[in-house]
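Case study B.
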Amino acid sequence: MRELIKMVIVLTVLSCFSGGLLAYINSATEDRIENMVLEFVKGPAVRKIFEGATNDPIKDRFQIKDGEIERTFFVGVIDGEPRGIAFETAGKGYGGDVGLMVGIDAKENKLLGVGVTTHAETPGMGARAQTDPGFAAQFRDISLADPIKVNQDGGTINAISGATITSRAVCSAATEANEIYNKFKDQIEDQLKNFNK
Amino acid sequence: MAKPLAQEFFKGLWDEVPPFRLVLGLCPVLAVTKSLYNGAGMGLATTFVLLCSNILVSSLRKVIPSKVRIACYIVIIATFVTIVEFMMKAFTYKLFMELGIFIPLIVVNCIVLGRAEAFASKNGVFRSLLDGLGIGIGFTLSLALLGSVRELLGTGALTFWKTATPIFPASYPKFSFMIEAPGAFVALGLLLCLMNLAGKK
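Model:
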């Protein structure tokens, strides 16, 4: 009996101590990790979308509260004016959520481009959505008034062969981005107007 | 157990160097040694975990009841591994992306648990510290060596810090087999063979 109590106490104390230590380290490194994720996971997609932008879109970002969550928007200065806006959405892929960075030209209401940030799709198949430049290029300059769909669903996007589900996920994420953009249009435009001041 | 203290440290560098002599913990050894930088990074992460868990296990060895000792060791090891994971994410994110799943997998690395069970639970704190440090450095050097051999033959360059430094002239035909998975087995086998030849008396 005594041994049983000792086992319980030792394990409990050890686990509590471990939990407390990890909670402290988590809170101490949270901000740095967030910056690293911005730089290495979202950064490459954002920079690709705003190719030729004259500012650093990773630094020039703002946040808008959407219900419970805070959405981060990246601003791109194109042709001397802040008209590019990029943010992340997600679509349901074959192996879980496909994170998509979507760039929108706020002046002409068209897509600037998309880039897959995080995914768990099959290597060599769905994963090509991230690496195949031809696939992403199809999203450039699509007007926001047009539906964003793959060929099979009556749209204009050629799905990656063998990865229709992933291609659909990218399209639905882009469509969702369009909805979010319309929902916060006024706030985004305010932010862009105040950008240089 | 009256071995001189220095021997506890130095045995990890040659007599009991983990991947070559004990042939333990081969999963990260084969998987992450695509380059010198990756190998050394993985080795240092494991050394930190090994050192901290050895110290803690040996200082708690009289408190931990023997029936739940493995559970206690796992809690201790997992805590330090998670700390390493946070630190890598915060400071060397690129390396973290390269090593990926193999960082959390240090928890089940049999070297770490093996040293806790076979050494730290029976020896004093200072001895366990030396043991952990020796085995850890031995592991790091082995991974770095294997990583260098594979990277050098595979790409003709070595990554010391973040970017690759060319070692061979540009005309070197890249033997990319070496940086793929089968190359890991071949390189490890050849190094094991050389170690055994050199250790033969």
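Chain A touches chain B through 19 residues (CB under 8 Å). The remaining cases will be described in the next quarterly update.
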